[in-house]
Amino acid sequence: MADKLYFLMAAVLGAVVFVLLYGTHILNPAYDAWLLSQGDLTQHYLGWCFYRRGNWTFPIGLTDQLAYPSYSSVIFTDSIPLFAVFFKLLSPILPDTFQYFGWWGILSFMLQGYFSVKILRTLRVGKFCSMAGSIFFILSPTVIEKMFRHTALGGHWLILAAIYLFVKHGKSYRNVRQTSLYWGILGALIASIHLYYLPMCGMFLGGYILCSLIRGFAKEHRLKLDYMLPGVAFAVGLFAATWLLGGFSTGAEAGGDGLGECSFNLNGFFNAKGYSRIFEPLLTYADGQYEGFAYLGLGIFVLILVSLWYLLLRITIKKLKLHTNVLLYGVVYLLMALGLILFAASPQVTFNDKLIFSFPYSSTLYRIWSIFRSTGRIVWPVCYLIFIGVIVCCDRLAKENRIAGKRFRAVLAVCVLVQVFDLSVKLGNLQKEYAQKKIYESPLQSEVWERVAEAGTVKHVVWVSINFDNYEMMHIAKYALDHDMTMNTYYFARPLNIHENTKNSVENLSDDCVYLFRTVDNDNDRYDPKDLGLQLYEADGYIVGTTFVL
Description:
Layout: H1 2-22, H2 40-53, E1 62-67, E2 70-73, H3 81-89, H4 101-122, H5 127-138, H6 141-147, H7 157-167, H8 169-172, H9 176-193, H10 197-220, H11 229-244, H12 298-316, H13 324-345, E3 348-351, E4 354-358, H14 363-369, H15 380-400, H16 405-435, H17 447-454, E5 460-463, H18 470-482, E6 486-487, H19 499-507, E7 513-518, E8 535-539, E9 542-546
Parallel strand pairs: 5-6, 5-7
Antiparallel strand pairs: 1-2, 3-4, 7-9, 8-9
């Protein structure tokens, strides 16, 4: 019961930190201006709005509102499908304007604190050190970096949930039914939140199964295939949820171009990239390596030194002796961490602005690998393994030396303050950014847009030009949403082939469509608007075409 109280306190602490950083404005479901003109964040929000407006289908995650007349999945707008489906069920009783992204944020901070304390208490870390240590997890720079930029990827509590299942392995692995249920739920959550968590959490699942097989064989001298069931349950949960959400029903390309451009640079744990008061940004090999952001923070650096001292004392003075099971888990932890770093840093392993080596090219391997094109993200669990390791070491120092125990707890508390100080400029900027309410003003100011809407016949926006800028597409989508129109294309996480639909729309012009072209960079477009027999109007940098006179 006492531990449950601390878990609750950690969750409340997460909520308090969230409010201190982001305020309370964004928790208002009717306030959506902060979600507009924000790139990826706008993609997520408008993706939800279009999904909400569409009719129910089966699979339930599909909508024809964004790739009309084809279907797209809410998975590929990164709109946190779990929340999107739940709130679409409640849609009849919700206000016309409704956003859940602020509540996703505060829930994620709460679960970040909750799971961090559960992990630390499972590892027998003292209550004070567990609560103090949870602040490192709640204020994780990797969470803050992603939370309202690529929002679903701010849910790092999924990673912590996988780590928690692994650290309680020794007590739970024999209860195969229960552990299979937990891993199955985690697989379903990954599919219904963001699939990039698959390799991160999957690494801990692999470690869990490996430890089960080894420990089972050591006790019974035979391999028990029952210990593979958590993996089966995980896969079933993952694929069932992906299928139910329409992830296999749209023809979206699984992979992306540019594998290696968004990898983890080996300087990533020390590259503050504007998050530190002390450390300047370091050079990177490729611009996209911001996806491998994994800055640990000055407070953690100090604790790393304390931990190295602790390990040195244990090895040299106390003649470190490791129990077989401790050795097993230690080796598996190390293998998982190295595997995650290798995955994240590949296929081009870099340090600063230098290329160290590249893996030999294999079209098959690269095609599969490119499903997780932004490989740099895969390093995030290693940050948490480091957090856990240094907090455990500090706690052990406090427990083993009762005379100096209070000093080591004080060291941990000071390191928390140092961490906050190091991140304080970035945290302060966040407070300022979210302190004031924002007002959205569309850049589509020409009277042409209103005349199109007032015509009363237009139901579909057909973007004809081959290329588009993601930001400009969001403004077009907001216009379409406000005037109850569908889109024929959108900013999707994975591209959909809409060329055939566009061709059909252009070759079969209709009064219920408005046709949009860019006025710049159209050299490679398949269609010249002047050749289509449309009524053409220039508006805010676009050419707007209709079959009728406005």
